[in-house]
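Worked problem 6 (solution included).
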Amino acid sequence: MTSLPLRYLQLTKPTIMLLVVAAGATAAILEGSLLQEPWRLAAFLVGLFLSGGSANALNQFFERDIDARMARTCGRRPLPLRQVSATQALVFSLAIGVTGIIILGVLFNLLTAGIALGVILFYSLVYTLGLKPSTSQNIVIGGIAGAMAPVGAWTAATGTTGVTPWLLFLIIFLWTPPHFWALALHFKDDYEKANLPMMPNTAGDESTLRQMFYYTLALVAASLALVYVEFGWIYLVTSIALGATFVKKAHVSWKTKDPKAIWGLFKFSIWYLFALFVALVLDKFIIR
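Solution. The predicted structure is:
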C-alpha cells in the first residue's frame, strides 16, 4: 500500500521533476551568485520543484480519464488507481503551485515568479487541454514549458537573462522530441486507444524516426554551441562523445525500426541530459 505522501509526490511526476531541478541547478551553478548563499539556491530549487510539480499534477488531474485507459499509466498514477480523489489532486496542485510562485516572487523577483506561473498555465492548460488532443506537434510546442528551468534559475539569480540559459533552454527543447517520440513509438497502441494524435499515430513510424534523427542533429549542434560561452574541456569531450552516440542510436533506430533500438534510444536520452549537466558542473568547479 502506497503511503499518502508518496501518492501526492507521484502527482508531481518526480522522475521528470528530478531532470527539471537538475537543469535549474546547473544553470544556477554556472551563473554562480546563488552559490554564495546556499539557502537561496535551496529555496529556488524548492520553488522550482513546487511550481513544476503543480503543472504536472494539473496535467494528471485533467488527463485522469485518459490515464485510466492507457496501460502505461492506469496502474501507476494515483488518480486512475483511486489513491487520491480528483478534488484532492486539484487542491494539492493549486496549493503547491501557489506556494512555489510565492517563494520565487518573495525571495527572488517577480520575473521569476511570472515565468513559473507561465509554465504552470502553459503546460496544464495550453499543452494538456489544447495542444495534446489536437496536434501531433503537441510535444514540440509543449516542450517550451519543460525547457524553462535554466531561464528561471538565471532570472532568480540576476533579475535578467543571458546567452547561457537560453542555450540550455534550446538544448532541452531540441532534446524533447527524440526523447518523447521514442516513448510514443513504444506505447503507440496506448495513444491510439486514448485517441491522442501523437506523431507515430498520425505520421507513421518512418516519418517520426526521420524527424527524431534530424532533431538529434540539431540538439548536438546546440550542445556544441554552448562551448563558446561555457567552455571547458570536460564538457567539450563529453558533449562530443554523447552527441556522437545519440546520433548513432537515432540513425540506427530510423534505419532498422527495431523496437529494442528505439527503446534503447529512449533510455539513453535520459542519461544524455544528466551527463551534460554533470560535465558542465565539473568544468565549473575543477577547471575554472
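Discussion: The first helix runs from residue 4 to 11.
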